[in-house]
Fold this protein.
Amino acid sequence: MPDLSDDLRERLTRRHAAGLLRQLRELEDVGPVVVHAGQRLLNFSSNDYLGLAGSPALREALAQAGAVGAPASRLITGHLRAHAEIERALAAYVEKPAALLFTAGYAANVGAIPALVGPGDLILSDALNHASLIDGCRLSRAEVRTYVHGDVESLRAGLDDRERFERVLIVTDAVFSMDGDPAPLVALSALARAHDAWLYVDEAHSLGVRGGQGAGLCQELGVQPDVLVGTLGKAFGVAGAFVAGPVPLRDWLLNTARSFVFSTAYPAALLPALTRSLELVVGADAARAQLRANADHLRAGLRALGLPVLGDHAIVPVLVGENERALSLGAALRERGVLGLPIRPPTVPPGTARIRLTPMATHTVEQVDQVVRAVAESL
Ligand SMILES: *Cc1c(COP(=O)(O)O)cnc(C)c1O
């Protein structure tokens, strides 16, 4: 067997040669403008859509925490009244009877999906679903059929032999994280009803952004998914996630979702910030309108350059194709003071590398114009 370091160095070299090496960059702060290695950069690569993560209001809320950790799992001594209260508030927010808090969206999906279905059951999964949904599907050991992205006919074909399976779960992002387009939720919901399937919707990029009071794309479209996942580290600017649905869903998950049962409780220190964040998000209609305006302005500016721009809201991906081209475009943007990061496989399918730009409500129109100019000069 090779020496560990030699082996890994060799594998890293191969990744580098394929334009797939990833590296961390140390930023000084969060927000619409960040500093990296002494350079001020317009930050068009975060999920902090409403600019809450670094806001004075959330920083102040941190000081109200009665404890830092909740040093046991929720089922042992880690369950505080504040956990129960925020779960009730989040459930009411998305118009579901109950919700269960997880430490991250990743943990929510790898915990909840295997808790709901298993061998003998069927999962229908959109081809562009987030990695945490894919991993949850794999862990479940149900039969997984991937349908063509957003294609209702492809999904319907996967339901042809529905009677062979006891339970069927349709799993989808609400807004796709790397393409920025919405799932056809109305059609998915109708198919689920018609074929006796459950609909599982992950609102990671739509909670706080879409719908009345930011309650999500399902709310906006009047769709009632059986299971709704919301994450709290993106537009909410804090951390964590919740799974919402009927009361027995919460009871079942707290018994069987392994990422909940066998993991230390959501940190007590963040609970007051989460409560404050929910209040701020509910009241953020003006910020949501500004976000929409910034996104529309950015997309229009980039399309005027003749670029293939995907999505239709706050995620503005510019399709580039080859990994190396995405890397060089990202570097050129950086030289012009813009942080617009390349997204490469396995996050997106091979040959579809892109620069994924995400405006924030707290960017100014001038800053959006600056990004368009930087892209034009970098081509
Ligand atoms: C970001 C994301 C997650 C993961 O959530 P974290 O809280 O960051 O772990 C899950 N699902 C989707 C669709 C996401 O975009």
Q: What stands out?
A: The mean pLDDT is 97. The chain has 15 helices and 13 strands.
